[in-house]
Specification:
single chain
C-alpha cells in the first residue's frame, strides 16, 4: 500500500488555485427591433416593450378640447 503526502490548499496558503482559461465571448447588445417582433409573433414574449416603444409617445400628446368636453359630460355629443 502506498502512502501519499496529501496537501490541501488550506495548509499551504501561498499556493493559488489555477483558473482554467476561458475565452471572452463578445457580449451581445440588446435584441434588435426585428428580433423582438419575431419573438412576440412566435409567442415567446408578450410584446410589452414593443408596445411601449411604439405607443408611449402618444400618451404625451394633449387631449383635444372637443374630446375633453365629450368625456367631461359623460355622454356622447350627437352633433359630431
Amino acid at each position: 500500500m502506498a502512502i501519499c503526502n496529501i496537501m490541501s490548499s488550506e495548509t499551504n496558503p501561498g499556493r493559488k488555485p489555477i483558473l482554467p482559461f476561458l475565452p471572452q465571448l463578445p457580449l451581445e447588445g440588446p435584441p434588435s427591433m426585428a428580433d423582438r417582433i419575431v419573438a412576440f409573433l412566435d409567442g415567446r414574449t408578450h410584446g410589452e416593450d414593443l408596445l411601449h416603444q411604439l405607443y408611449d409617445y402618444i400618451l404625451e400628446e394633449p387631449i383635444p378640447q372637443r374630446l375633453q368636453e365629450i368625456l367631461g359630460r359623460g355622454e356622447p355629443d350627437r352633433t359630431l
